[in-house]
């Protein structure tokens, strides 16, 4: 495999996602699902209005409590699902086992299970309706590659019996669990695709699903999914759902390349000091770029986290 040089603005396989932040109405309602079913560790911060959900030393989901926040409007862009990636099939089998015994008590539902050829996945709705995928990747050499080095994904039934048989028996998500991708509902797929590809340096990886595009850094199957399936027509608002997500780049040179690409494409952004989950203030010297995508969903390009 070959990758473009960071100097031309293209993200390589060394880039990945960091954290995703959700605005929720009640931490007490939402946290049990992520803790007891997904298997993440929970740390409450500040005055108790924020929770950090992690696997080992890897923070994955930031939950910001906003009791007065309304549900996302039916026409507003936002989250289709966030995707927690576990390192192997045994860990995914453990999620299925926990779901079968704990999902109802945690106020969540198992809404689907699919074989995507590149991965195997379970799908949930958390207690406030946010889509959550938990998946493991198949080895890259088993992915269906096209002649131009894209991938071909599909949605096939997943054998839950076989998956349950492979469960490792763990009660928590193992080390190596992280945020694999986010899938967004957007108002205009071509416009959003151009933002993530032309301005941020990702690549189109698959466009075999009508009304959708999947883009990624390097040759991963996708870090960001984009779809118009539910005909969203308004930008993201201030209701419950996704606030922002992070793209983590490997070095200062890559961050500089992304900065230059954003400037060239005419996108506004703030340069901020590294900090906790809600840092938004501008600063003169920075390791992070904070901006919004065309639908108002926050994107943070971070170096060194």
Description of the structure:
The strands form two sheets. A nine-stranded mixed beta sheet has the order 9-6-7-8-5-10-13-12-11. An eight-stranded mixed beta sheet has the order 2-3-4-1-14-17-16-15. The protein has helices at residues 27-38, 89-102, 160-165, 189-199, 252-265; strands spanning 16-24, 41-45, 50-55, 58-65, 78-85, 109-115, 119-125, 131-137, 156-157, 178-185, 203-206, 212-216, 224-227, 241-249, 270-272, 288-292, 298-303. It contains five helices and 17 strands. Helix 1 crosses helix 2. It starts with 15 loop residues before the first strand and ends with a strand. It is globular and about 50 Å long. The longest helix is centred in the N-terminal third of the chain and has 14 residues, at 89-102. The chain has one domain: 2,3-Dihydroxybiphenyl 1,2-Dioxygenase, domain 1 (Roll), CATH 3.10.180. A hairpin with a 7-residue loop joins strand 12 and strand 13 (224-227). It is α+β, with helices and mostly antiparallel strands and 305 residues long.
Layout: helices, strands, pairs:
Elements: E1 16-24, H1 27-38, E2 41-45, E3 50-55, E4 58-65, E5 78-85, H2 89-102, E6 109-115, E7 119-125, E8 131-137, E9 156-157, H3 160-165, E10 178-185, H4 189-199, E11 203-206, E12 212-216, E13 224-227, E14 241-249, H5 252-265, E15 270-272, E16 288-292, E17 298-303
Parallel strand pairs: 1-4, 5-8, 10-13, 14-17
Antiparallel strand pairs: 1-14, 2-3, 3-4, 5-10, 6-7, 6-9, 7-8, 11-12, 12-13, 15-16, 16-17
Helix pairs in contact: 1-2
Strand order in the sheet with the most strands: 9-6-7-8-5-10-13-12-11
Computed CA radius of gyration, to the nearest angstrom: 18 Å
Name of the level-1 CATH class: Alpha Beta
Summing up helix and strand content along with how strands pair, one would put the structural category as: alpha+beta
Percent helix range: 10-25%
Tally the beta strands. Answer: 17
Quaternary class: single chain
CATH-scheme architecture: Roll
Largest sheet: 9 strands, mixed
How many discrete structural domains? 1
Parts with pLDDT < 50 across at least 5 consecutive residues: 1-9, 276-285
Average of the residue pLDDT scores: 92
CATH H-level homologous superfamily name? 2,3-Dihydroxybiphenyl 1,2-Dioxygenase, domain 1
CATH fold annotation: 2,3-Dihydroxybiphenyl 1,2-Dioxygenase, domain 1
The rounded distance between the terminal residues' Cα atoms is 25 Å
Indicate the proportion of strand residues: 25-35%
Summarize the helix and strand pattern as letters: EHEEEEHEEEEHEHEEEEHEEE
**Which of globular, elongated, flat, extended, rod-shaped describes the shape?**
globular
